[in-house]
Design brief:
The protein has helices at residues 40-47, 70-73, 93-100, 107-120, 122-126, 137-149, 167-182, 194-200, 218-222, 225-231, and strands at 2-11, 14-24, 29-34, 55-60, 63-64, 78-81, 155-159, 186-191, 203-208, 211-217. With 234 residues, it is an alpha/beta fold. Bound molecules: adenosine-5'-triphosphate (ATP).
């Protein structure tokens, strides 16, 4: 579904990605883990065209995303939930969700999806008329995910969904990730919480200062000594 080859990204003199290759297959949850500054967010930004690519390729559904206008990418079934939620704080919960469906024209299906999203996130339904900026951090993360779901994505890319959340909310967010996967959404998950990210994933990649240092079956990585030492505090 998504195939990245030899991707390089630089911010001026800083080379953030130094030739990474990875893929996400239909129906998988793939996690990308790594320390602060390893280049995880940059990878997602390069996929969605938010940062310029120096070299390499990003192919989604057989199409070269480097040649695709970033504004069209969402219409291709690829949704990105950025780090730090970034909901529209001065809009209500319901308005945020409507923005998620902005590029869709199928009114009936949008209404059905809204019901489905509210069923999955009852807290958001209760707060439909509340301004998003007044939601708690966990609720904002749920809103950011719910808004992305309103675009009806086939591939959902989540950037650090657990960041800054209390353990109980982290559990809830990961339960939702599992449920979304079960209902057929392919997921690329960027996380610093390696324990959770590896527990939920089929496969994973470890990013270290702009390079993939390890990759493979997520359960195997979870029990790998080097991974445990570096990322799991073992
Ligand atoms: P974190 O977990 O802390 O969010 P990350 O793995 O997502 O880290 P990135 O945000 O992708 O890391 O950053 C990778 C490297 O690129 C870092 O060294 C960072 O300082 C640098 N970088 C990121 N954005 C910019 C920018 N806009 N201008 C200059 N350097 C940048």
């Amino acid at each position: 579904m998504l195939k990245i080859e030899d991707l390089e990204v630089s911010y001026g003199a800083v080379q953030a990605l130094r030739g990474i290759s990875m893929e996400v297959n239909d129906g998988e949850i793939v996690s990308l883990i790594g320390a602060n500054g390893a280049g995880k967010t940059t990878t997602l930004h390069a996929i969605t065209g938010l940062v310029p690519i120096k070299s390499g390729s990003v192919i989604y559904d057989g199409r070269d995303l480097r040649k695709t206008d970033p504004s069209r990418i969402v219409t291709m079934g690829l949704a990105h939930v950025p780090e730090g939620r970034q909901v529209f704080t001065r809009m209500t919960v319901a308005e945020n969700l409507a923005m998620g469906a902005y590029f869709r024209k199928d009114k009936k299906a949008i209404a059905d999806d809204l019901e489905r999203v509210y069923a999955r996130f009852p807290r958001l339904k209760e707060r439909a008329k509340q301004l998003a900026g007044t939601l708690s951090g966990g609720e904002q993360q749920m809103l950011a995910m719910a808004r992305a779901l309103m675009s009806k994505p086939r591939l959902l890319m989540l950037d650090e969904p657990s960041m800054g959340l209390a353990p109980i909310l982290v559990e809830q967010i990961f339960d939702i990730i599992r449920a979304l996967h079960k209902s057929g959404t392919t997921i690329l998950l960027v996380e610093q919480n390696a324990q959770m990210a590896l527990s939920v994933a089929n496969r994973a990649y470890v990013l270290e200062t702009g390079k993939i240092s390890m990759s493979g079956d997520a359960q195997e990585l979870l029990h790998n000594d080097a991974v445990r030492k570096a990322y799991l505090g073992a």
